[in-house]
Amino acid sequence: MASYLKTTPTREGWFGDYGGAMLPPPLEPHFKEIREAYDRISKSAEFIRELRYIRKHFQGRPTPVSYLKNLSDLCGGAQIYAKREDLNHTGAHKLNHCMAEGLLARFMGKTKLMAETGAGQHGVALATAAAYFGMECEIHMGEIDIAKEAPNVTRMKLLGATVVPVSFGGRSLKEAVDSCFQSYISQADTALFAIGSVVGPHPFPMMVRNFQHVVGVEAREQFIEMTGELPDMVAACVGGGSNAMGMFSGFIDDDVALYGVEPLGTSSALGDHAATISFGEDGDIHGFRTLVLKDADGNPAPVHTVASGLDYPGVGPEHAHLHKTGRVSYTTADDKEALGAFFALSRHEGIIPALESAHAVAFAMREAKNHPGKSILINLSGRGDKDIDYVTQTFGFGETL
Questions:
Q1: At what positions is N6-(pyridoxal phosphate)lysine found (predicted)?
Q2: How many other CB atoms are there within 10 angstroms of residue 298's CB atom?
Q3: Mean pLDDT (whole number) for 130-150
Q4: Which of 9-13, 115-119, 352-356 is predicted least confidently?
């Protein structure tokens, strides 16, 4: 039987009822060009060889899997492991697809990379790829996130990127995507819009998943080497969902329980969270069909989470599909749990996680006590350097949590 990854999505980019490409007519030929270019190079030995070289000699792959003994002892029950994407160059999983998108852009003859960013990790990764390939770079970022993630803004500028502040609407990730799409329309002949997650019109949900597949492949091999067996549970945070799809794709055909952890923010009330799968409904956003958090008028609703990279009222269409089929279970962690996990991992393991990744840590800490004799592998998708100023200035050092 053909594997899941070989048969999903369809040629038209549908993951069951979700996905597709709903584009304004001026962009249709450009996305067709991207699809055709990806089809040509994705199985090319030359492309694969250069991407492997970059991953090994520039990114520092493979990243390790770490056994979190101290955290496991603290929580009791299951043993907790982490795939250390925080040790990937630039500090998160985002570079895995950004370097590949840079190679794709070069193949297509583009001279510029552009994208949205929330927490800034995708922006930093794309600015890094642009510097590596000698291209221009334009990053759109909401004003709220610029204030929260100042270290990443500085990094983007040091790498030569132009950072475009987005001041309308909620001034966060959704608006950054809107702004970047608008800017891209007039530059599509010379630029590639390197979408930062498994979202957007086809082929990006498929492409980004496939470029992130390396995370799951490595983690599966490493875990078996360490323990002699597969993990019982695999978990990752989910906003748009690129780190989770990278991780899940390595285990999708295995008898392994998969868990996506969404941000519950401060409450389950609309506007207080960004848990799209948990509370959303079918809808269209940014050129694709998925689950969407909607307001009373049916428009994408305001969202909140302490983690800027999860601050999105939609979700990747493949996640919506995996939820509908039941292959992945989706749950939540709120701001307080994520912050508690942020401090716990820092103090008990010497690893400062990104606030996004801390949602997966929170899940593992919560579930460990309920699963004695089992193993939990999380994707530690990024490091928390970008978050330390915001966290300590806003919440201190965790004394009141």
A1: 94
A2: 10
A3: 95
A4: 115-119
The pTM assigned to this predicted structure is: 0.96
User: What is the pLDDT at residue 401?
Assistant: 66
What confidence score (pLDDT) does residue 398 get? Answer: 78
Residue numbers annotated as active site: 94, 116, 381
State the SS3 of the chain.
Answer: CCCHHHHCCCCCCEECCEECCCCCHHHHHHHHHHHHHHHHHCCCHHHHHHHHHHHHHHHCCCCCEEECHHHHHHHCCCEEEEEEHHHCCCCECCHHHHHHHHHHHHHCCCCEEEEEECCCHHHHHHHHHHHHHCCEEEEEEEHHHHHHCHHHHHHHHHCCCEEEEECCCCCCHHHHHHHHHHHHHCCCCCEEECCCCCCCCCCHHHHHHHHHHHHHHHHHHHHHHHHCCCCCEEEEECCCCHHHHHHHHCCCCCCCEEEEEEEEECCCCCCCCCCHHHHCEEEEECCEEEEECECCCCCECCCCCCCHHHCCCCCCHHHHHHHHHCCEEEEEEEHHHHHHHHHHHHHHHCCCECHHHHHHHHHHHHHHCCCCCCEEEEEECEECHHHHHHHHHHHCCCCCC
Average pLDDT over residues 24-51: 96
Q: 92 near 355, Cβ under 8 Å? A: no
Rounded to the nearest integer, the mean pLDDT of the chain is: 96
User: What domains are defined for the chain?
Assistant: 14-56+95-204 (3.40.50.1100), 60-91+213-395 (3.40.50.1100)
Paired tokens of 315 = 């979700």
| Inter-residue contact 369 to 75 (CB < 8 Å) | yes
Say if residues 300 and 270 touch (Cβ distance below 8 Å): no
Q: Which residues pair with 263 in a beta bridge?
A: 333
